[in-house]
Every structure is written in structure tokens, then in C-alpha cells.
Specification:
Keywords: NADP. There is one protein chain. The protein has two domains: 184 residues, Quinone Oxidoreductase, Chain A, domain 1 (Alpha-Beta Complex); 144 residues, Rossmann fold (3-Layer(aba) Sandwich). Helices cover 27% and strands 24% of the residues. The strands form four sheets. Strands 3, 4, 5, 8, 9, 16 and 17 form a seven-stranded mixed β-sheet that branches. Helix 9 links the parallel strand 14 and strand 15. Helix 4 crosses helix 5 and helix 4 packs across helix 10.
Length: 358
């Protein structure tokens, strides 16, 4: 079968130097595994980290790809709930399933957790014609959801759902600020907040603001402006609040970090919540503690989510309440261009997909 393989790291982000199409054997399932004929896979930023060999030196030779959707073609002898012919999508959070954290519903905090297609290998990811996963790491795709929609949702919908529903526990009527709404997680964050009956303010670069509104955001703000937070504050003062509550943001969906951090804290209501899953503009943010203790702010970390949360998100996708936004589709042979586009981000809105076969 064809697979997208690299056996050395990239020191200059010229991914064309290391990414090669190779012919490798089709995998055989272990007793607890299923074999998937991959129809679509989706890019994630951990692909970049893998090719750089930083912050983790991942196994070589390597096949990336954490989000893959396709048809089951074979199953192991101990597989109980998945059958040949099922349409499935990967749940890339691989945990031990038996420790105290896993059995208490916190598989994302498992000390032995690895991310499939990033930390696994050698030669174990989704950018190939056939792949293999434990039964517990695949989810059936509901009727009405395409392979493309499911692959795009695998990690990012899961992450967004866990942030807002699992961690921040959003409630109808809240004002939710979605930072970086044009990203994959931001796209889903907007839709999840609207699904829960929230008023949504979303941020992005100026060329993407109209698309945020089309996706469902009530207001869109250019976060590249120095005083973007003042515009958000002005918007909150115009939004009617029940029972005379002080205008302000109730929940902030954060994955940008850097210089935005303290500005975000100033926008939160008393008892408000900021939930963060990343720091694309810098992780070493200074915090003005007065914003936290004086207003009783909740700061929550979040990473990935549970298999059940992915199933919940896909259910609402099957009901037409959530959709995956697809930016572009590439072949395996075009993978270097696809990853370069993701890295640069220029004009990018939504997820980039890779098709293992034309």
C-alpha cells in the first residue's frame, strides 16, 4: 500500500525534503484491532511538531495522521462491537484504559497517554491507504456524516466539545468569546456555543470576519488590533443581560496565549471562566493576578477529550447542528504543500484534508 513516510526530521520546515511516498505492507490486525481502509485524513499541527522532531523526538520512520476516517476491512478475534463494512473515524487519544484516571472518565489525563499518528510508531498513523487501531480507538460515523466531515472533526471537534461542555460547562444565555474563530477548533467552538444557546463573539484576522458571522457568530472582532479587547467590551455592554447582570464575558475559549492573555482576563465577568488548550502566539504569558483573585476567575486547562465526547459531537453533526469547515483537499503526493499551507496559515479557514487515493 501507499504511505506518506519520513525517516528524518526537518530542520528548516522544507517538508518536501523529507516526505516520501513509499510502498509498505498492509497491516494485519492484532486481536483487539480493526483494519481501516482510509478514505480521508485531516491535518493537525502535531504533524509539524513531528516533522521537526520537537518538542518530542517521535519514532522514525514515521507516518503522521491522527484524524482518519474510512471503512473497516478486517477485525481481530477479540473485537466485539465493530464489524467489517462499518464506517469509522479515529479517536486519537490512546490511553491505558485501566488506571484510576482512565476509569474515572479522565482518559485524557492518563499518564501513559499517547497521541496516535503523532507519538506512535514506527509507521503507525493515518496518512496511508490502510491503517490499524484498537477497537476502543474508533467511533462509528453516524448516518448522514461523510468521511470528510468525520475526519475533519476527529480531534478538533473533540477538543472544542471538551473545552466548552466538559470543562467550562457552558449554559444557555451566556456570552462566550471564541478566540481564533477561523481555526479548526475555533470553527467548532462557535457552533457548539450556539448549539447551547449562547451569544458568541468570535475573533480572527480582518479578512476572515465575515466567515465567522456566516458560521453563526453574533459578533466578529479583529484580534490583530491593539485595542481589540475594548471593542469586545463595547459589544458586551450592548447585549441585554438577564436580571441586570453586569455586562461582560462569561466564558473565554482560548488557544492563542501570548500578548492576548491579560486582555482576555480583563473581559471576564465576576466568576467567569477561561478555558485554554494552546498557545499559538506564545506560552510564556505574564498574568496580572488581580484579575483572577478579585473577580474570582476560573482558569481551566483542557486537552483532547473522551471517546464519549467525540460521539456526542458527531451525533449533533448528524443532526445538522454542527458542520466541519473544509479549507482544501490534497493528495498524498501534495502533502508537503498541504503542511506548508497549514504552517503559514495565510488565507486558511477550516481544516485541510489529505486523500490517500485519487
Amino acid at each position: 500500500m501507499k504511505a506518506l513516510v519520513y525517516d528524518q526530521y526537518s530542520v528548516d520546515d522544507d517538508f518536501s525534503k523529507i516526505l516520501k511516498i513509499k510502498d509498505i505492507p498492509i497491516p494485519e490486525p492484532k486481536s483487539n484491532e480493526v483494519i481501516i481502509k482510509v478514505e480521508t485524513a485531516a491535518l493537525n499541527y502535531d504533524d509539524i511538531w513531528g516533522m521537526r522532531g520537537k518538542p518530542l523526538a517521535i519514532p522514525l520512520p514515521h507516518i503522521s495522521g491522527t484524524d482518519a476516517a474510512g471503512e473497516v476491512t478486517a477485525i481481530g478475534s477479540d473485537v466485539k462491537n465493530i464489524k467489517v463494512g462499518d464506517r469509522v473515524v479515529s479517536h486519537g487519544n490512546m490511553s491505558c484504559r485501566v488506571c484510576k484516571l482512565c476509569t474515572s472518565g479522565r482518559e485524557f489525563d492518563c499518564k501513559k497517554r499517547t497521541i496516535w499518528g503523532f507519538e506512535t510508531g514506527p509507521l503507525w498513523g493515518g496518512y496511508c491507504e490502510f491503517t490499524h487501531l484498537p477497537e476502543v480507538n474508533v467511533v462509528k460515523i453516524p448516518e448522514g456524516v461523510s468521511y470528510d466531515q468525520a475526519a475533519a472533526a476527529s480531534m478538533t471537534l473533540l477538543t472544542s466539545w471538551h473545552m466548552l461542555v466538559g470543562r467550562a460547562k457552558i449554559q444557555p444565555g451566556q456570552i462566550v468569546l471564541i478566540m481564533g474563530g477561523s481555526s479548526g477548533v475555533g470553527n467548532y467552538g462557535i457552533q457548539i456555543a450556539k448549539l447551547f444557546g449562547c451569544t458568541v463573539i468570535a475573533t480572527a484576522s480582518p479578512d476572515k470576519l465575515d466567515k465567522l458571522l456566516e458560521l453563526g457568530a453574533d459578533y466578529a472582532v479583529d484580534h490583530r488590533k491593539e485595542d481589540w479587547h475594548k471593542e469586545v467590551r463595547s459589544i458586551t455592554k450592548k447585549i441585554p443581560k438577564p436580571l441586570g447582570d453586569v455586562p461582560g464575558v462569561d466564558v473565554i475559549f482560548e488557544h492563542i496565549g501570548g500578548s492576548h492573555w491579560n486582555k482576555e482576563l480583563t473581559l471576564l465577568n465576576y466568576g467567569g471562566t477561561i478555558v485554554t488548550t494552546g498557545a499559538t502566539t506564545g506560552y510564556d504569558a505574564e498574568t496580572d493576578l488581580r484579575h483572577i483573585f478579585f473577580k474570582g476567575i476560573n482558569i481551566l486547562g483542557s486537552t483532547q477529550g473522551t471517546r464519549a465526547e467525540l460521539e456526542q459531537g458527531l451525533y449533533w453533526m448528524s443532526q445538522g447542528k454542527i458542520k466541519s469547515v473544509i479549507d482544501s483537499v490534497y493528495s498524498l503526493e501534495q502533502a508537503a504543500d498541504a503542511h506548508t499551507k497549514m504552517l503559514k496559515g495565510k488565507g486558511l479557514f477550516g481544516k485541510i484534508l489529505i486523500k490517500p487515493r485519487s
